[in-house]
Amino acid sequence: MIFLRTIPTVITLLCGLSFLSAPAQTVKPPEKVFRYAFAAAETGFDPAQLSDLYSRILTANMFDALYTYDYLARPLVIRPNLASGMPEVSADFKTYTVKLKPGTYFSDDPAFKGIKRELVASDVVYTYKRIFDPKNKSPSVSGLREEKIIGMEELREQASKSGKFDYDREIEGLRALDKYTVQFKLGELRPRFLEGLTDPGIFGIVAREVVEAYGDRIMEHPVGTGPFKLSEWRRSSKITLVRNPNYREEYFEATPPADSPLAQQVYAKMKGRKLPQIDKIEVSIIEESQPRWLAFLGNEHDLMERLPAAYVNVAIPQNKLAPNLQKRGIQMQRNLLGDVTFSYFGMENPIVGGYTPEKIALRRAIAMGQNTAEEVRLPRRGQAIVAQGPVMPLTAAYDPNMRSEMGVFDRPKAMALLDLFGYTDKDGDGWRDLPDGKPLALEYATTSSADYRELNEIWKKNMDAIGVRVVFKYGQWPELLKASRNGKLMMWGLGLGGGSPDGAGVLALGYSQSKGQQNHARFSLPEYDEIYKRINRMPDSPERKLLIDQAVKILVAYMPYKFSTHRFGTDLTHPWLQGYVRNPIARDFWKYIDIDTDLQKSPKY
Prior knowledge:
By secondary structure, this protein is of the alpha+beta class.
């Protein structure tokens, strides 16, 4: 009886339920993870202390600068970032007043003691002062000193004497006028000062309480206002960043050129989307090119940035994407880069340095004995052009028709020059000696990766051919960089990417006040310094271009650097990575890209 009585009740309940809506179940969308690899290890995450490319890519995506570059516009166009608009600039280019957007917040950190910390004008002042603090040994200080921020040199000199930088002392040249307004006052006319406010990798705004909380460990604790924040760090192995939940409301907006189908396509697809679009970035450090390539082919990475030269013939024969990669939906972007590769001679080194005729002759002979066209053809697999000087393509100062001794390979002339200045084999061992009879041996610093081994083979082959012994000093990138800054290396080969649309900034490689920073060769010549200063003070004009050419000629004549190539960069992407377009300068592209997780899971790929 009990059973019979309960049946109607159960039926009634079931019927009632049939008229109710089922509780909504929230389906969490799949996590969007962007994965790729760096070819060299990072050095840390404090913008003020960085100069290497890979660390600056990381900080560019965790910190913000006052201004940025339009993601798609070509030629490059500067846009406001932290600033609410373009700066107010005085007629004499000496005063720049910047208003900040309210409501920009740092990522959460214990240093803020539970407060959601807004970025304000005093943070900008503090950030730029840090670069001048001698304690930080900032590689960026020489460039910023050239801007002649009024009162900053006095602060730096006082700190050098006392051992403590007075951050609380107000100076005329850098002030917070109110909570959201910062003003720069410069001692000289600086028409291109705005370009120096665009790089979040080295001018990313930091918070004083964070720096003071972590002290000497600040390189390990990046806290910025950028779209991503550090989640995990295994030094020289893997870096993981995640979306910054405090990131301001920002949407995809850009100006695609009419003659770029790729940029037009990206803009049509991405316009108006909220940024950033991805949830996590996983960056692996893989110095050898083979495992990087295999990781991309195995779908472990979404981007193969800067295809290694060893795989050019396999992946892009005749500079066309290989059919097997096309079938997988892989896409290719190949561009002449705004960069230059070079080898430097330590100008304070007793063997290759110096300014006397015989020392200049030695460097010129070594440079002329280096077959750069062979370097382009063999280890670089045709993915470069021979450089005639330091000025990079894609910049206003670059002249594609310029020709100089820098681009000349002339073995007989190199050997005749060595003979003329007494670099002959005096002890009969088959190798040339110094004019005083001591051994002549070049010590060339390098890493042990396969890419560098191929380049080293070209150096050795060409030096052997002119009777100059060369030995290679192997080390890890961060250690070599430190030794180079301290003037401890005789020779080292590097690459340098463009930092501004102007192009004249590369001439800091020869500026004496940049020793230990951009000037790895430690070149010092008063005539060059004076020309360099005049270039920076002048507005754009034909007269300024003539001075740039004159500075280049001095570098060619004294040869503190052997400028070798301007490279092509080929980037390969899987079909699920969307929105990627290489920018000639900006490194903060992560917020613009997207991952199509449905395509990523598709058995088709």
